[in-house]
Amino acid sequence: MNIVLDGMGGDYAPHEMVKGAVQAAELIEDDIYIVGKEDMIQAELNKMGYQGEQIHIVNAQEVITMEDSPVKAIRRKSDSSMVVGLNMIKEGTGDVFVSGGNTGALVVGSRLILGRIEGIDRPVLASVYPCMGKEPSILVDAGASSEAKAHNLLEYGLMGSIFMEHVWGRSNPRVGLVNLGVEESKGTSMTKDAFKKLKKAPVNFVGNVEAREVPRGACDVIVCDGFVGNVILKLTEGVAMSILELVKSKLMASIKSKMAALMLKPQLKSLKKEFDYEEYGGAPILGVDGPVLKIHGSSTANAVRNAIIKSVPYSKENVVEIIRQSMLELEEVIEKDEEEYSINE
Amino acid sequence: MNIVLDGMGGDYAPHEMVKGAVQAAELIEDDIYIVGKEDMIQAELNKMGYQGEQIHIVNAQEVITMEDSPVKAIRRKSDSSMVVGLNMIKEGTGDVFVSGGNTGALVVGSRLILGRIEGIDRPVLASVYPCMGKEPSILVDAGASSEAKAHNLLEYGLMGSIFMEHVWGRSNPRVGLVNLGVEESKGTSMTKDAFKKLKKAPVNFVGNVEAREVPRGACDVIVCDGFVGNVILKLTEGVAMSILELVKSKLMASIKSKMAALMLKPQLKSLKKEFDYEEYGGAPILGVDGPVLKIHGSSTANAVRNAIIKSVPYSKENVVEIIRQSMLELEEVIEKDEEEYSINE
């Protein structure tokens, strides 16, 4: 299969992108197509002394920057690495797209160029959520779209479950709905409706999950609207960073504590790794008609390599096709559900 | 002035309640009325050898439990410590009420018995939010009411600001709106509308605040709807606890790290104190026509004492009266606002 990598997206592109591709090529057997300015990418490959035949360059002369307006950039920069890469997926010359570029542009571009999977109302950016001391979960919606409806949350749960099962190899992923309390009666009218729908969906729905339990790995798929998802991701980061800073300042408080800190260096280092998004292999844009993985804008080669590795099952396990099939099954469930309502009326 | 304490509310009532009252009496000059089963409270006072004249007992034979349905309990248990205490505030024999009882019942009871301040659409439970290594903020809405409207958030900001200024002595408190990004254009239609309203309100509105910045003390008053407020409070607790557990497990990993941990004991202890809600003197129910402070159900004497101390400025600084006046001023702002709209039409 052909993995397509956005060579120009991200703060350290193309250097770290190319480096990550070279590292990944040693671990997988698939072809990697790096899209971007040919001379720059070739120069990076030369610098690394790459001689193999797995990595190919696809020339694209434009770059979508972080400052670009997403819709305009996708429409106007037709020779950008992102648009060219997404078109390769659409045309079938590429099987999966990995990019560290402008998030908004990647989401918009995926929708516009690849289109939605039939039955999906709203494609969505998911994010791997690091659970401390445990396997990570996936959070959907991480993309902070505007107001969500209950059926969007149903889609999020279904797609997140399929992704976790087939890409992360998590068997029978537990799908949880972020809510005020565990009881079915809790929450807004929207979450109550989402609860009812998720209960009927072909997923392992474990019910409402309180925010307190999210970092403890209470579920494999964390379902919430984009506003709440944004709060969860950013607050987790903010609290973790604040605590680690506080711990650091306490450790530096005295000579004795500094000595102790020195003794703890390996432990503190392994602690930091728990929060390292780079380990997690990218965030999928779920619901578009082709596999796309978003990596962080500040990704280094390590993150690029891990995302490329995860992109293999994302494509080979036919995640997009499974979502399509599940949406058809889901329609039956929803139709039956509506019939029930009409009988009761 | 007369401070009214719910002697029977909380997991460790009446013991810890009475103990906290006795401790507070040594620090303040005001009278404390403990409401509850007279014999039990008297027995606790005797046990502590209390001989002073500052503490009084008001007999109430019923108790509202954590399992009681809030509305039913307030309506039916008219001789409960909570209902008797709230009635003392209404009748003016008490100046401020402190309770560690059933949160829902206390919010409902405050609304039903004290009523709303004129102009306030929705009274709300606020919560002190511990910022790591910094002075705490206040978060409104912490009570997880159902869907909020933009004008509710305006009220939250205004009331939270008045509370922080007059009870916590924070000068010109910074009011921030939890949102997806700092730009005015970010968020849902509701938060965008709330932004416009808060900008015109007589508060020091610092604009949108991202969740990442909340634990760093980005604002003194954290404004958000009850769903998001619940997520912020519980997730902060969950992340903090998970990290501290992880740190602990890392420290216990080897003999060397155990030794280091022993050396760090005082630092680790001071770290724990940063998260100690007991230090913060209770959460106000803002917008009801009388000062009410909610303390945690698991409060010990320490928390009771701190809440009683904070209840003094809450009453003496006329916070309720200032909120009433500000709502009148606010109406002028909103009216002018509406006039502007009609001119533009």
From TrEMBL, chains A, B:
Catalyzes the reversible formation of acyl-phosphate (acyl-PO(4)) from acyl-[acyl-carrier-protein] (acyl-ACP). This enzyme utilizes acyl-ACP as fatty acyl donor, but not acyl-CoA. Homodimer. Probably interacts with PlsY. Keywords: Acyltransferase, Cytoplasm, Lipid biosynthesis, Lipid metabolism, Phospholipid biosynthesis, Phospholipid metabolism, Transferase. Gene3D superfamilies: Isopropylmalate Dehydrogenase. Belongs to the PlsX family. One of its GO terms (biological process) is phospholipid biosynthetic process. It comes from the Bacteria. GO terms for cellular component: cytoplasm. SUPFAM superfamilies: Isocitrate/Isopropylmalate dehydrogenase-like. This is Phosphate acyltransferase. Pathway: Lipid metabolism; phospholipid metabolism. It is found in: Cytoplasm. Pfam families: FA_synthesis (PF02504). Its EC number is 2.3.1.274. Its main location: cytoplasm. It catalyses: a fatty acyl-[ACP] + phosphate = an acyl phosphate + holo-[ACP]. One of its GO terms (molecular function) is phosphate:acyl-[acyl carrier protein] acyltransferase activity.
